[in-house]
Amino acid sequence: MRDKATPTRPADPATRTPATGTAAPPRTAASPRTATARRGRVVAALMLGMALAALDGTIVSTAVPQIVGDLGGFSVFSWLFSGYLLAVTVTLPVYGKLSDTFGRKPVLIAGIALFLVGSLLCAGAWNMASLIAFRVVQGLGGGALQGTIQTIAADLYPLDERPKIVAKLSTVWAVSAVAGPAVGGLLAAYADWRWIFLINLPVGAVALWLAARHLTEPARKAREQGPRPRVDWPGALAVFVTGALLLTALVQGGVAWPWLSAPSLGLFAGAAAGAAVTVVVERRAAEPVIPGWVWRRRTIAAVNLALGALGLLMVAPTVFLPTYAQSVLGLGPIAAGFVLSVMTLSWPVSAAYANRVYSRIGFRNTAIIGIGAATLIMLAFPLLLPYPGEPWQPALIMLLLGAALGFFQLPLIVGVQSTVPWAERGTTTASVLFCRQVGQSVGAALFGALANAVLAARLGGSGDLDSVARSLAGDGSGPAEHLRQAVATAVDYVYVGAAGAGALALLVLVFLAPRKFPVIMEKPEA
User: Of 526, 514, 351, nearest to 10 (Cα)?
Assistant: First the structure.
């Protein structure tokens, strides 16, 4: 299963000496200063590429009223986000395998180029249907960006230095979460909504030039793949179709049609049949897109499940907290966004310091501390937060949650990437991100149904979260007070459910994850 030419050590950083993680001398004639400068330019390309994907959701959301006013299609505008999410999620495993087969550079360049083509097409959309279709094209490029950037980051840095690049990439997400809505609102108000897509072009062009010029991969990687790499296109198609059916059912169920309606049942049945076909195709493939070892190896399976649970947990703050802040606390959209964004400020800071913890106690134990704290913090929302409360109170909870999750996610991603050789790292990274994305889609459907059920019980069987939130917009108090209390109760139940997802991740780490990750010591890219 492992690359026999690569030395392995059955321990994580808690059992290694610091010297074992240091970078090896350059294998080329380039000086250390030249190699460091080149790596810095590659990191700049990765950060710009990550900015493209990170800004996409936040910058588009604020311009929806202008887009709908210009193009129409209010009944289907949610597919501006759902279509992009579908394309990103279902292509992650495919791009992961392609990066292991052909190298990271061609996949990254193709992803940036496809994203820019999609952005240019979106700027020229003539109706809502064409804009949704072009958003899917953008998502096809975004899937390559998310997985490949994380994989290249692991290739570039030795284990002991890897938190540096992960913290930088996390900071890109944090800045995007804060700046995206403001930039999108300014462009939509003072220019034109089409500029929210055109602004991607200069950013992506610089990223494309830096990656094409400065990203290199040693020749030894090509030799590992053999003279004729094979791509499992039937498996890729099966994964794509199965994922698209499942995510469409999860995204649209309970929104466009009832959960027990014919469309929902048909989509879930199709996804189940597609999953069965995928298993058969992948077992017969010489180089499967989703190889069996992703689930047979204890470490990778545990991390996949734990980060799938993280996706469930993240639905509570990212989807329901803004509604809570506006409907219960009476905040405006910008202030409500700030309550959420403080989580993205503490997350990269704690991630940057996580290596000081896992270098002493190991990946698993550090992640256990992080998710244990996150679970307790999620429970603090319904148990300790007063009604209606002050804005600083949920903001403080989110600040603490971000710090806890930085200690949870980073050790798992860095740890699992360190247990596989170069030729398996893309597939492994993509499987982790894929599970997190699917977990978030499942969580949105599950907790959305839970919130609507609680509201229906509180309001006598009528109303859902979206309609109640709209009715509360701009309302002060009086007759709307019972609606605010109903929303607060519904969100409380969602946070309890999210705490349950955190507890599930904790159990996975305690009972499934190995105590010591089987780290492979490889020389990083110069």
Answer: 514
